[in-house]
Amino acid sequence: MSDPVFFSANASLSLGAVAEAAGLSLPEGADPALVLTGAAPLESAGPADLAYMDNARYGDALAATRAAVCLVSPRFAARVPATTVALVTRDPYRIYAALLARLHPDAMRPASLFGSRGVSPGAHVHPDARLEENVQVDPGATIGPGAEVGSGSVIGPGAAIGPNVRIGRDCSVGAGATLTHALVGNRVIVHPGARIGQDGFGFAMGASHIKVPQIGRVIVQDDVEIGANTTIDRGASRDTVIGEGTKIDNLVQIAHNVVIGRHCVIVSGVGISGSTTLEDYVVLGGQVGVVGHLRIGRGSQIAGSSNVNKDVPPGSRWGGTPAKPVRAWFRELTTLARLAERSGKGERDESAD
After folding, report:
1. pTM for the full predicted model
2. Cα–Cα distance for residue pair 186/8, rounded to 1 Å
3. Cβ–Cβ contacts within 10 Å for residue 348, how many?
4. Letter string b/e over residues 214-242, b meaning 16 or more CB atoms within 10 A of that residue's CB
5. Class of residue 186 by CB neighbours under 10 A (exposed 0-12, middle 13-18, buried 19+)
6. 256 is catalytic
7. What angle do CA 79, 82, 88 make, to 5 degrees?
8. Considering 181, 256, 263, 293, which one is annotated as catalytic?
9. Each residue's pLDDT tens digit, 222-276
10. pLDDT tens by residue, 295-341
11. Who contacts 89 (Cβ-Cβ below 8 Å, separation ≥6)?
């Protein structure tokens, strides 16, 4: 069996270009013309590779690396081997990410899986749909009447774009994803299997449950990324909104009328109930559950596996079930651990008698 390389470097970078892009000065004696042709982890990097290091766990790997250049935080700079050029920065990971994007631009967003240009054979584009120039539509994709897709966007195989949906420019819609009742901005990435714009879960409860028509939309602003198999329900009467620059992991459920601010981070397994608002820069750890009609304030962070059942003030760090400020949560955990330890000692003492 052959061993394909899915992301070969599309460019090379000189050490001088790396330093300039990072806003860093080269160490004395470093050759600015040194050519870097790839990036790799510390332990496998070779003499033409760029690496980075900002975690104490990898101190031994740093000391033994063969990388040509290493972006490294100040506290670890002394461990860089003499054969490796150390570029010292307080944020090596962000700089590494930016340089990696220059080496591997094809990895920045999903491309056509069929590899053709324009509308592929086997795709179904309604005559009343409007596609700008340089749109790629893979086999099996369906684009409904009145839908619009902007230039540079890619619609993956088996994806379904509903009637009158708007998709901006330079977007990627992954294989098997569905978008209905949605307005999508520019440079949005929707990974395979995501479901956007379906009914919210709305019923008037009683002896028999009456379905409440969901007549809102989903608004996805620019530069949002939505993970595989994530679901975003359309609004009941208001719109469900995902703010600019927000990043959503795989397997997240966002219910009707939810409003998510700009540049939020929502990790895998999160569930957000209806009509809740996340202000800008909120971070929800994996498997967080948020009940409906709450507000989580700007810049707040919720620890993984927590359950949020009341409003969270701006700038807070909460955790636990039910979630509370982390100091109170840690005190509870410490107290419970001490009680359990005492109880265990008592049981051992009784068994000794």
Report:
1. 0.92
2. 26
3. 9
4. bebbbbbbbbbbbbbbbbbbbbbeebbbb
5. middle
6. yes
7. 55
8. 256
9. 999 999 999 999 999 999 999 999 999 999 999 999 999 999 999 999 999 999 9
10. 999 999 999 999 999 999 999 999 999 999 999 999 999 999 999 88
11. 22, 24, 71, 72, 73, 95
Across the chain, how many H-helices and E-strands are there?
4, 38
Q: How far apart are CA 130 and CA 53, in angstroms?
A: 47
Which of 323, 293, 330, 299 is CA-nearest to residue 313? 299
The domains of the chain, with CATH numbers, are 13-107 (3.40.1390.10)
CA distances from 184 to 83, 134, 187 (A): 48, 18, 9
Measure the CA–CA gap between 215 and 235, rounded to whole angstroms: 7
Ramachandran category for residue 134: left, alpha or beta (phi over 0 → left; psi -120 to 50 → alpha): left
Q: Which DSSP category does 320 fall into?
A: T
Q: Residue for token digits 């209806």?
A: 274
